[in-house]
Write a structure and sequence with these properties.
It comes from Paenibacillus curdlanolyticus YK9. The chain has about 500 residues and is of the alpha/beta class. The chain has 2 domains: about 10-100 and about 225-480, Aldolase class I (TIM Barrel, Alpha-Beta Barrel), CATH 3.20.20.70; about 105-215, CBS-domain. Helix content is about 30%, strand content about 20%. The chain has 15 helices and 25 strands. The radius of gyration is 24 Å and the shape is globular. The mean pLDDT is about 90. It binds inosinic acid. Inosinic acid binds near residues 380 and 408. Inosinic acid (IMP) binds near residues 57, 59 and 405.
């Protein structure tokens, strides 16, 4: 006979935190969000900790090398999507590991025969006012010149004017040579009053740009997540089908943590994959997703360094509608966290858990942490920022970014569905969508982090571990949900979201 769980499964929005005593020392400046991501023995330090409890989802529309460097700079981690060729994914990992703070790959590039209109279009699209002009219009082509807003005057110049007629040509540029250090690049910037210094190799091919403002902002990121060689820490998604080839390539590229990306991780496929990786490589690996005690313990037994929790809660996810599997995200975290605690008490081994999917409001993150998650994984949240891999588009009067599920026809990532045999599902588990464009990662993260720290002060907790130990969490009734938003008033700004 089937086993029944008659308690309804719950989502984050059905809970609130009850404040604990706030001491005078409970200030946001005293709160640490440092959190383990890989398992460790009692009394020992985890091999890898995050400085903020955020990871970006293993998705084409979320986590590429640009997102990974930007998030690591802020103290979190990205898992670069695995639904691409092994070579392309390894190249992205390599780019993150080789990234030198302050040296950026040029994001605005055009050819000399293109026009002023093309410059303006590109500026409108990505907001950058410095455009590298290369022979082939790519970020690594032969550098022929630079265009900034000082090179044209809209009231005078025709829009079809070719770029080569007004760019600052290479012969007049001050440039840096490949291999130079950041202090050397900055000396050139300051001595010559530049905003941007192109770095080229011996054949004049563009390698990086160094911006004056980036140097300053890098100094503002003391939480950057670095390995012992001062390279950013990066994760990558793998699947249970081609891991024999994919994992060696990712390890050779320098990946720090792998995660098996799957909608349902309670499978022999995952068990075998984790075991094989652990036997053959000295690399960390997370597994998932699971939503209950049994699934968690099974993956821990396989050797997983962390376990990812959540089925069907993702914003673009239609798994529950299509297959009828899943569980409310809060219920899943609560049960898995209990199993993790018991396992810790019995064995002295702490296995971090990641709450994946379904974070809608910032306070959901705090709730997930209070319920026992050590970090969260988010897709929709990060897809909205400049640093995600998709283009910013204008739809009606709004700027949006595209965001599609890994189980959608667009991503065609059938490898994440462990049904055995050859992949090739005939139905989708995700949708293709837009999300509102929200600006830069850093400005949004700063706001979210302020909210989390502020709530933790209300709860009298100066660390995530303390929050997990002391949080008091209450279920709310459907009627009190109404009370929670602005109510019984006429809002002046009808766009107010309540977040
Ligand atoms: P979000 O933060 O609510 O957008 O959820 C992101 C999470 O949704 C990812 O980390 C995955 O676990 C999950 N996900 C990604 N693509 C799909 C899909 O196509 N179907 C179901 N779940 C997905």
């Amino acid at each position: 006979m089937a086993h029944y769980y008659m308690e309804p499964s719950r989502t984050f929005s059905e809970f609130l935190l009850i404040p604990n005593l706030t001491l005078k020392s409970s200030t946001p400046a005293n709160v640490s969000l440092k959190t383990p991501i890989t398992k460790f023995k009692k009394g020992e330090e985890p091999a890898i900790s995050l400085n903020i409890p955020f990871s970006s989802a293993v998705m084409q529309s979320v986590s590429d090398h640009n997102m990974a460097t930007a998030l690591a700079r802020c103290g979190g981690i990205s898992f670069i999507f695995g639904s691409q060729s092994i070579e392309d994914q390894a190249a992205m990992v390599r780019k993150v590991k080789e990234y030198k703070a302050g040296f950026v790959v040029s994001r605005s590039n055009l050819k000399p025969e293109q026009t002023l209109q093309d410059v303006l279009d590109l500026k409108e699209e990505n907001g950058h006012s410095t455009v590298a002009i290369t022979e082939d219009g790519t970020s690594t082509g032969k550098l022929l010149g630079i265009v900034t807003s000082r090179d044209y005057r809209l009231s005078r110049d025709a829009l079809d004017k070719p770029i080569h007629s007004f760019m600052t040509p290479f012969s007049s540029l001050i440039y840096g040579k490949a291999g130079m250090s950041l202090p050397e690049a900055n000396d050139l910037i300051w001595d010559n009053k530049l905003n941007c210094l192109p770095i080229v190799d011996e054949q004049q091919y563009l390698q990086h740009l160094v911006f004056r403002k980036d140097y300053d902002s890098d100094k503002e990121n003391p939480l950057g997540l670095l390995d012992e060689n001062k390279s950013y820490i990066v994760g990558a998604g793998i699947n249970t089908k081609d891991y024999l080839e994919r994992v060696p390539a990712l390890v050779a590229a320098g990946v720090d943590v792998l995660v098996i990306d799957s909608s349902d991780g309670y499978s022999e496929w995952q068990y075998e994959t984790v075991k094989w990786v652990k036997q053959n490589f000295d690399v960390k690996i997370g597994a998932g997703n699971v939503v209950d005690r049994e699934g968690f313990l099974y993956l821990v037994e396989s050797g997983a360094d962390f376990v990812k929790v959540g089925i069907g809660g993702g914003s673009i996810c239609i798994t529950r509608e299509q297959k009828g599997i899943g569980r409310g995200q809060a219920s899943a975290i609560i049960e898995v966290a209990e199993a993790r605690q018991q396992y810790y008490e019995e064995t002295g081994i702490y296995v971090p858990i990641c709450s994946d999917g379904g974070i809608v409001h910032d306070y959901h993150i705090t709730l997930a942490l209070a319920m026992g998650a050590d970090f969260v994984m988010m897709g929709r949240y990060f897809a909205r920022f400049d640093e995600s891999p998709t283009k910013k588009l204008k739809v009606g009067n709004n700027f949006v970014k595209e965001f599609w599920g890994e189980g959608s026809n667009r991503a065609r990532n059938w490898q994440r569905y462990d049904t055995g045999g050859k992949s090739g599902l005939v139905f989708e588990e995700g949708v293709d969508s837009y999300v509102p464009y929200a600006g830069t990662l850093k400005e949004n993260l700063d706001k979210t982090i302020s909210k989390i720290k502020s709530t933790m002060c209300n709860c009298g907790s100066l660390s995530i571990e303390e929050l997990q130990r002391t949080a008091r969490i209450t279920l709310v009734s459907a009627t009190s949900l109404v009370e929670g938003g602005a109510h019984d008033v006429m809002l002046k700004d009808s766009t107010m979201s309540g977040e």
